[in-house]
Amino acid sequence: MFNFFKRMKTIVGSELNAMLDKAEDPVKMLDQFMREMGEEIQEVEGAVAKQIANEKILKRKFDDAQALVNKRQSQAEKAIVAGEDELAKRALEEKKDYEKQVLLLQESYEQAKNDTTVLKNKLDEMKKEYQEMNLKKDTLKARAESAKTRTKINRNMSSIGGDASRRGFNRMEEKVLRFEAEAETSEDLSSQSRTLDDEFKKFDSSIDEELSELKRAMGKE
């Protein structure tokens, strides 16, 4: 279980590029990894709780056995004082049996206590690593989103200058030039269609102006 958590830590540290290569969504995958790690922590917390409960049970049994050893020792002493040697022997025999139990229970209790300490340390380490990876996850998610945005912008920019866009732009430019040429042609045709009288009108207008100027100079207006 703990090895799996360590493996997940390694994956989070190097998975971003691999996920991008596989066209996976890094943001969703990182969230998934963190959920799995959170579930691993919950499992270890459950195991630690069970181990602590087991340690307490063994400790209570050890204490009870030790209390019976002390009790039989006290009873044997009382029996000797009362002159009851047989009763004292029976107390001492049971004391010896309880001492054996004490040794076994003490060994089991010490082992359980050590196991509890190991699991607690691993759980603390897992939680610390989880917090570190959670912070790193936010950074990786921001980097992934930034990379996706840059890629999208670059693709849009590259499409602006694409062949289709360029051909369309050139076609519109040619249409504008054609409109301008048609307008110039229409002006030329309009000019050519004027009558001879129209052409001479400009001279008549000029003579009238010259006559008016002459009258003004002679004071005849």
Description:
- Residues 81-189 form a coiled coil.
- It comes from Ornithinibacillus xuwenensis.
- Keywords: Coiled coil.
- InterPro entries: PspA_VIPP1.
- The protein is mostly helical and 221 residues long.
- It folds into 2 domains: 2-160, Helix Hairpins (Orthogonal Bundle), CATH 1.10.287; 166-218.
- The chain has 5 helices and no strands.
- The model has no long low-confidence stretch (mean pLDDT 79).
Task: Annotate the secondary structure layout.
Layout: H1 2-21, H2 26-81, H3 85-160, H4 163-192, H5 196-218
Spell out the key features of this protein.
221 residues; Helix Hairpins; mainly alpha; single chain; 2 domains
Outline the biggest β-sheet: none
How many β-strands, per DSSP? 0
Number of helices: 5
- CATH topology call of the largest domain: Helix Hairpins
Instruction: Report the CATH architecture of the largest domain.
Output: Orthogonal Bundle
Shape: rod-shaped
Whole-number total of structural domains:
2
Structural class: mainly alpha
Strand content: under 5%
Identify low-pLDDT runs. none
What's the Cα radius of gyration? 52 Å
Q: Estimate the mean pLDDT confidence.
A: 79
Report the helical percentage.
over 70%
What's the SSE pattern?
HHHHH
The CATH class of the largest domain is identified as Mainly Alpha
Termini separation:
120 Å
Briefly characterize the structure.
93% of the residues lie in helices and 0% in strands. The protein is mainly α. The model has no long low-confidence stretch (mean pLDDT 79).
